[in-house]
Design a protein that fits this description.
Blueprint: H1 3-8, E1 15-20, H2 23-45, E2 49-54, E3 57-62, H3 63-86, E4 89-93, E5 96-101, E6 107-112, E7 118-122, H4 125-130, E8 132-138, E9 142-148, E10 151-156, E11 159-165, H5 167-196
Antiparallel strand pairs: 1-4, 2-3, 4-5, 5-6, 7-8, 8-11, 9-10
Helix pairs in contact: 2-3
Length: 197
């Protein structure tokens, strides 16, 4: 077990599952993002000049400068994402999901089972190749974003156990826990209603 996670466990709290981001999938995503970055940057780099409009005035900029900037920013973002995923650790106890992250400092997030509203497993093409997937946990948070034409929309903001091995096993365990919690809530409500009659 990750020593940092063991330090935040409560007394008698036992870990039933722990995992990290799958390293092969992580490297594959890094390579793909770098390839895409360098293709886009290369397209701009080969252009002699790029025309654009600023404050209604037509202007030009060297394509090689734009290409280099795109490549540098893409490289920086790809490496940042790679190393931040590299240090992530996940654990599930009998009462909560723990997500450890942080490149410089150490950050912990606890998601207690009674907060969880829904769970989704997401397995893409890379996930199928490496037999990994992401488990998305919905605790009712939403994000606001612009839908275009002045529209404001919301979407669910998931907490994610990213590119983990055996995602369906984790899903089954969490789903079983949720179903048990719902059954106990409904049985408690039924007992209360029957006592009122």
């Amino acid at each position: 077990m990750n020593p940092d996670i063991s330090n935040i466990l409560e007394s008698n709290e036992k870990v039933v599952w722990q995992g990290i981001v799958n390293r092969k999938a992580l490297v594959a995503f890094l390579i793909i993002s770098l390839i895409v970055t360098f293709i886009i940057g290369g397209i701009f780099f080969t252009q002699q000049t790029i025309n654009y409009t600023s404050n209604g005035q037509p202007k030009q900029i060297s394509g090689s400068i734009v290409g280099i900037v795109i490549m540098l920013i893409g490289l920086l973002l790809s490496l940042l994402s790679f190393f931040s995923d590299m240090v992530k650790n996940y654990a599930i106890t009998k009462k909560r999901v723990i997500i450890k992250s942080g490149l410089i400092g150490t950050d912990f997030k606890s998601i207690y089972f009674d907060q969880i509203k829904n769970i989704i497993v997401d397995v893409g093409l890379i996930g199928k190749i490496f037999s990994v997937g992401s488990v998305k946990i919905d605790i009712g948070k939403t994000e606001i974003y612009s839908g275009g034409k002045g529209q404001v929309r919301t979407k669910t903001a998931y907490d994610v156990l990213k590119h983990i091995d055996a995602p369906y096993e984790v899903y089954k365990y969490l789903q079983k826990t949720l179903e048990g919690r719902k059954e106990s809530l409904y049985s408690g409500r039924a007992d209360k209603e029957s006592n009122l009659r």
